[in-house]
Amino acid sequence: MKKSLFLLTAVLLLITSCSKDDPEVPNEEEIITTLNYVLTPTSGGIPVSMTFQDLDGDGGNAPIITGGELAANTTYNGTLTLLNETATPVEDITEEIEEEGVEHQFFFSSSLATLSVNYNDFDMNNNPVGLTTAVQTGAPGTGDLTITLRHEPNKNAAGVISGDITNAGGETDIEVTFPISVQ
Amino acid sequence: MKLLSRSVFNKYILYFFILNLGWLQAQQCNLIITGAVLDASSQDPLGYANILIQEKSLGTASSEDGTFKLQDLCPGVYHLVISHIGCEGITIPIELKADTSFTIELNHGEHEFHTIEIEGNKQRINTVNIQSISRQFIENNPDRNLGSLLQAIGGVYQIQNGSGISKPIVHGLYGNRLSILNNEIIQSGQQWGNDHSPEIDPFAADKIKVIKGVNTLEYGGGISGAIVLVEPSAITEDDHVHAQVGYTFESNGLGHTVNARVEQNAPVFAWRLSGTFKQYGDRKAPDYLLNNTGSQEYSFALQLEKDWSSRFRLESYFSTFNTTLGVLRGSHIGNLTDLEQALVRDVPFFTEDAFSYRIDAPRQEVSHHLAKVKAIINLPKQQNINWFVAGQLNNRKEFDVRRSQRSDIPALSLQQLQLSSNLNYTKRFQKYWQLKLGVQTILTDNTNNPETGILPLIPDYRQLKNGLYIQSILTLKNHQLSAGARYDTEYHYAPTISEDVPRQIITYERNFHNGTTILNYTNRRFKNQLIGISTGFAMRNPAINELYSFGLHQGVSGLEEGNVNLKTEKSIKSSAEYSWTPSSIFEFSGLIFYQYFKDYIYLNPADEFRLTIRGAFPVFTYEQSNANLLGFDLSSKLILFKSLSTEVKYSFLRGNDLSQNIPLVYMPPNSLNATLALTSKKTRKVFERVLMDKAQIALKHHYVFKQNNLLENQDFAPVPEAYYLMSMNLSAQFIFPKVKLTAFVRGENLLNSNYRDYLNRLRYFSDDQGLSIVAGANLKF
Known about the structure:
The complex is a heterodimer of chains A (about 180) and B (about 775). Chain A is mostly beta strands and about 180 residues long. Chain A contains two helices and eleven strands. Chain A has helices spanning about 1-15, 95-100, and strands at about 35-40, 50-55, 65, 70, 75-85, 90, 105-110, 115-120, 130-135, 140-150, 170-180. In chain B, about 5% of the residues lie in helices and about 55% in strands. Chain B contains seven helices and 45 strands. At the A-B interface, helix 1, helix 2, strand 10 and strand 11 of A face helix 6, strand 28, strand 29, strand 30 and strand 33 of B.
């Protein structure tokens, strides 16, 4: 027992060096830095691209948000892409969501009453996911469009499969709002 | 202070006066034991104390003058069990060869009267500065964790994250402001987190104390005036192997708890081994199941003691504590929108009807290991030196619900190693003056495991603390004056990861100096009254998390940002206490305190929402302002008809931010407790050779007031309403010739009330636990 006492003292004296190795920066592979929403008019023409980019993750600098200008009374095909731009090469998170479609769903809501978004893709259980959508614009106006990604939503709850987030539950992985104008 | 108190002789001050009847007629069964039972502090005789010979199921009660007599005994080895209402019972091994007489001093009702012993000169001084929870209480509540047990003490509340996760708050202080000492060692871990329970198994302890005043100085943890002490007692003086095994079942959560403890004062060394195993499934609120709130725990402790001579003693302690704690699935939220949705729901998201023992994410996996070796040297002229070194290893992993099977990768993974050394010297001058001084060194190394794939909330760091203290206790008749001072230095080195990309390492190196002084005065001039006043000044430098934390903190549902510009927090605390025990059937005690803080460090919800891809989050930054805490605790006890006792306790606390003229957040609401207990004062024979002792039925009322001292915009959700809980406890001890059996049945939240507690984070999501029946038995050999 005396021996262990001396041993402990020795250890105590040895580690009194107070500098410490630099920490290893964790590989933030789960982080989503960028969301692109590209709307291509079904009748052809120049696609509209909306982007939310926050390269330093939670906190830090404010994200860069680019909204879009849409044409009135037009149908668009919407495609969502999610990226992790902190990784080299840039990582495409969209595939992850696609693979886990059952556990994810995007929700779209707009302050413009005449703008509607319908799901174009479905998971294994034939429930919507929302990576691809059909967007129909109505009368001109300005407002915003909010895209929400819920992880582990209850897709069987009332209204959820038709895109109503109210009863969805789960936790929010993405919630971004774009300024939009319909002309 | 520990040294001599670890001796059973000192604890119960037992005087043997073997009547010199020698060996004559040894085989005849006509031997007699006579004696007297005294109250240790007042030296008054204790009537109606029970004295039992365990092996023979034979017992008697002491008469009004404290004396007793047991006769017609055969020579042999016996265990004498002595107990009294409001006392912890004691067991004394005795080898009966001849007629024997002795005096027993019972530490009468330590937890009611808050007795403190000054060791060595066998002098006891009552003070409310030390309040404790007895072994008996721990044994009768093996299902509870430390925070929950401590609530039995006035002025102590708990901050919770569901049923299994809680930490104590003493007079409004917790986390970085309240140190918990396990076996004299400052518990090292991630104390900053409100959702981090202390990693301690109360069953391995014999006493849990809350200490205030001068006595906190030697531990170095009493930064702002109070500490929690968890300590085992000395190992039995008995050279037979003693064991106890307990099993407890709890209906809510279908929980099982198994405890065991074996000890022996073997000729080579004294040893004690104790262990606890717990398993709980989903707990239940009155109206729904709380999914994923199960927990598991296993822990062991080994204690060794050896007296090499009357001058030198070695003690060592090893423990390991391992737990997995589930957190309500419905409390795991993404952002503020989710929280707002959760707030308006009656039933939490993800609630299912199927009960399960499974613990998924979110959950915490924590392990804590402690090793300590202590050497005690008694020197001539009432001098004593003790030195102890300890090592602690704390591992904490927290798992969140994550994408792509990452739920099995911890979102927080921390490892902390702490080494400490304490050297204490005590000198007693005559009977009236005790001087104590010591030095302390603590080295802490904290490392984040990068496996998380998430930027750490708390940086890696290395920290060196050195402390020096001196305290003096002067006792003159009924007056006691204690004074002490302490000086601490802290150096830390923290390489942090930058908030900006590309990520860089920014290293901070800081030095701090802290001073603490405390002065106490106690007067026992009138035999049944005690008056005490205490005042102290303390400094606390900002902690690592307050300086450098950065990131999303689930515990506060926001982005938490440290503040490197924080200054040292200073506080002055004054308290006055009074207790009055006019007779053995009535007592009253009260304590009032006021604490003023300059540069009080707190987490401020900034008027700012930071936009992230997950939506908006409130930003919490560490700020400083001047603050005060004012509180009082009252307690009163009345014993009617010698067996019916009533006890009422009330605690009041108010915290104010003086700079901004607003209330302080997270302050315990006021509470009122009333207990009505009927205790059988006689030992009864229930069967041939089976005696029933300490039979008790107790009804408890617990009322928590609404926390009205809070502005509406200081919280996400309205403050919960006041609530009332009723609980009942039935317990009894059965004494068999070789075995003692303690059995109890307890009902918690008997009315199955729906309630939410202000300091339980889960109140945002769900009701608190509903009705629960706990039943347990404990066998002692």
